[in-house]
Design brief:
Low-confidence stretches of chain A: none
Shape of chain A: globular
CATH class of the largest domain in chain A: Mainly Alpha
CATH topology of chain B: Butyryl-CoA Dehydrogenase, subunit A, domain 3
Oligomer: heterodimer
Strand content of chain B: 5-15%
CATH superfamily of the largest domain in chain A: Butyryl-CoA Dehydrogenase, subunit A, domain 3
Order of helices and strands of chain B: HHHHEEEEEEEHEEHHHH
Number of helices of chain B: 9
Structural class of chain A: alpha+beta
CATH class of chain B: Mainly Alpha
Mean pLDDT of chain B: 95
Number of strands of chain A: 8
Strand order of the largest sheet of chain A: 1-4-5-8
Distance between the termini of chain B: 28 Å
CATH architecture of the largest domain in chain A: Up-down Bundle
Helix content of chain A: 40-55%
CATH architecture of chain B: Up-down Bundle
Largest sheet of chain B: 7 strands, mixed
Helix content of chain B: 40-55%
Radius of gyration of chain A: 22 Å
Low-confidence stretches of chain B: none
Order of helices and strands of chain A: HHHHHEEEEEEEEHHHHHH
Chain lengths: ~375, ~300
């Protein structure tokens, strides 16, 4: 065991730091949706031109193909430099792209992957439905096959960036009468196709970041099914094996920046003299350190064994709830200034309101606890 | 950067767990044989940190988690610190310095005690004829005495960090024991015609126990590596490990009793042993808040 990085790795860290110092935009990511997308695309293109896009993608598809430790270093430096969140490119870079890399035909890869890396094509995800949230296998959106086309009908919800997306990774039921995980297919859906209607949903923070999508006889070429008809669940899950434990680094660095700011602000205001506040800040500072240790441990295990374990759910749950406690502490320290919040403000109140997503999106805290109890501790399945 | 166990560490952890299970089972923590100490000594658990073996902190901490999981005697910790930083062979009792005097754990057969006084490790000679009484934690005994007039401090902040790290490891082991006890009981005990671990109210308590253990374990390894690497922020990382491990031990011990229900409140069942151990550990080398908050020293 060793927490130190090699001289070569330190050198790589300096390269990352230098480039980021010279290139991270000084202006913040705009809040207005249209401006934000333009900003995201331009930033992604700059990353691509400088050779920093797709750091964990194989070089054959324009990625950087960095080692896991180099990825850790890049992501730490990226977050440490307050570089912008990749925003609308998130689904393509972290989800759609990796799924294509693992499952798609050469033709699809050659077309889509460079566009994702350059920030030219925005992707969104079509998994959740009004009746299929935590119970994702209850998907009802269906497609019938007519010749060489799928005809899709139904609806998806909580689709981030649907209103600006060019493509969607869409999971639909292609086998009539099939149940649960069977009979689903993972399809590349053109978001500009006729019959698609996107109704944006406003969050309680005022931002419009996700939407409900309706499909009315939407025609998709059968060739857009990735990984074979009826294999949708397997294809969707395969993406998880592309994630090597580096997904928590940005959040960890952000939390360590936040806790330092909170301690400094509590010192400045004198709030730190309140024993309960000082105690909770001390506890959270220790836990933020532990989150880094868990992340390193998880990545070390992947390097040694090739696969992340179910511990990823542990980190995810811990990180999400710790982040929410930090947001609540920030609110407590801010006092009655929070009452001046107006819809769409990008203040700590906005962070706090948006932060509720951390224990809901991508598997609720309750589902994570089920997974931990069943897969780590071997308790009986309740579902 | 590597925080995984290597194959040697895995083997040592497995061997420790096996030995503990056979010779020092948690269920018998109240009635440990008088021969336990000589058995521990014979197996080398008391000399791991001595000059001949000088195990690194990272590996040592892993072994202490296993020892702690079986509620091993707390004087193994004072002995390990003494072996690494002083020339004290043999059994060394653990001293808890308080305002009114000193409590000494496991004084039987020891001539020296070691503890943290004014932030640094100090040893002192135990007076003859000490009377030890039972303690809250039934695995240990307590002898009370006035502040010793002669103390020998160790002129380095490192031994105190060493004791803090080992206490964190014992606490993490205690938290592991409570987690395992609770989850095996939840898988076995049936109510409403199914294992109680089927109900989310119970399984989520168990999941939280597993999270606390993972948090503590990871930070303990990180802190141990920081000590091994002589890192400038080692004191903070050890304090953080001590803090999250104490919380894991205490909260898991309480949750374990709740998961066990009526039987969990009895003297006969084992859950209270973890709770009482957690309370004892909370007084050994606690994390200082100023260190956790990163106060300029």
């Amino acid at each position: 065991m060793d927490i130190r990085f090699s001289a070569e790795e330190q050198k790589f860290r300096e390269e990352c730091r230098e480039w980021l110092l010279a290139n991270v935009p000084s202006e913040r990511r705009p809040l207005n949706a249209a401006d934000a997308i333009a900003f995201d695309k331009e930033w992604q293109h700059r990353l691509f031109d400088a050779g920093w896009a797709g750091i964990n993608w194989p070089t054959a598809y324009g990625g950087r193909g960095l080692s896991l430790v180099q990825q850790v270093i890049w992501l730490e430096e990226y977050a440490g430099a307050h570089a912008p969140w990749i925003g609308a490119n998130f689904v393509g870079i972290n989800h759609g792209g990796p799924t294509l890399i693992l499952n798609a035909t050469e033709e699809h890869k050659a077309y889509h992957l460079p566009r994702i890396l350059k920030g030219e094509a925005i992707w969104c995800q079509g998994f959740s439905e009004p009746g299929a949230g935590s119970d994702l296998a209850a998907i009802r959106t269906h497609a019938r096959i007519e010749g060489d086309e799928l005809i899709v009908n139904g609806t998806k919800i909580w689709t981030s960036f649907a209103h600006v997306a060019d493509w969607q990774e869409l999971v639909v039921r292609t086998e009539a009468g099939s149940r649960r995980h069977q009979g689903l297919s993972w399809v590349i859906c053109d978001m500009h196709a006729p019959g698609i209607e996107v109704r944006p949903i406003r969050k309680m923070s005022g931002q419009v970041e996700f939407a409900q999508v309706f499909y009315d006889d939407v025609r998709i070429p059968l060739a857009n099914v990735v990984g074979g008809l009826g294999n949708g669940w397997k294809v969707a899950m395969s993406t998880l094996s592309f994630e090597r434990g580096t997904g928590f680094i940005a959040e960890q660095v952000k939390l360590s920046q936040e806790i330092e700011e909170l301690v400094a602000s509590a010192r400045a205001s004198g709030a730190i003299r309140d024993d309960r506040i000082a105690g909770e800040l001390a506890q959270m500072r220790a836990e933020v350190a532990a989150l880094r240790a868990m992340t390193y441990r998880n990545i070390s295990d992947v390097i040694r064994r090739g696969q992340p374990g179910p511990e990823a759910s542990v980190i995810r749950l811990f990180s999400a709830e710790l982040g929410q406690r930090l947001e609540r502490m920030a609110l407590l320290l801010a006092g009655d200034d929070i009452l001046d919040f107006r819809y769409g403000d990008d203040t700590l109140v906005g962070e706090y309101l948006r932060g509720f997503a951390a224990t809901i999106a991508g598997g609720t805290a309750q589902i994570q606890r089920d997974i931990i109890a069943e897969r780590v501790l071997g308790l009986p399945k309740s579902r | 950067m590597d925080l995984s166990l290597d194959s040697q560490q895995e083997a040592l952890v497995a061997a420790t767990a096996d030995w503990c299970r056979d010779n020092m089972p948690l269920e018998q923590a109240r009635n440990r044989p008088d021969t336990l100490w000589s058995a521990l000594q014979a197996m080398g658990w008391t000399a791991m940190t001595g000059p001949d073996v000088a195990l690194d902190h990272a590996t040592e901490a892993l072994v202490f988690v296993e020892l702690g999981r079986h509620l091993a005697p707390v004087s193994l910790m004072s002995g390990a610190v003494a072996a690494r930083w002083t020339d004290q062979p043999g059994k060394v009792a653990l001293a808890l310095f308080g305002n009114a005097g000193v409590r000494v754990c496991d004084a039987e057969g020891a001539t020296i005690a070691l503890g943290i006084c004014d932030g640094v490790i100090a040893t002192f000679r135990l007076p003859p004829g000490l009377v030890a009484s039972p303690a809250l934690d039934p695995t240990t005994t307590l002898a009370r005495l006035a502040q010793p007039s002669v103390r020998t401090p160790v002129d380095s902040p490192l031994p105190a960090l060493h004791l803090q790290l080992l206490t964190a490891a014992f606490a993490a082991g205690c938290a592991d024991a409570a987690r395992d006890m609770a989850s095996s009981y939840a898988a076995l005990r049936e109510q409403f015609e199914r294992p109680i671990g089927w109900f989310q109210a119970i399984k989520h308590m168990c999941a939280d126990m597993a999270v606390r253990c993972a948090v503590a374990r990871a930070q303990i390894s990180f802190a141990a590596c920081a000590l091994d690497a002589d890192a400038p922020d080692a004191a903070f990382h050890v304090a953080a490990a001590r803090q999250v491990a104490e919380q894991a031990a205490m909260e898991n011990a309480r949750a374990n009793i709740q998961v066990h229900g009526g039987i969990g409140m009895t003297d006969e069942a084992s859950p209270h042993l973890c709770l009482k151990r957690a309370h004892l550990l909370s007084f050994i080398a606690p994390a200082r808040r100023s260190v956790l908050l990163g106060d300029p020293a």
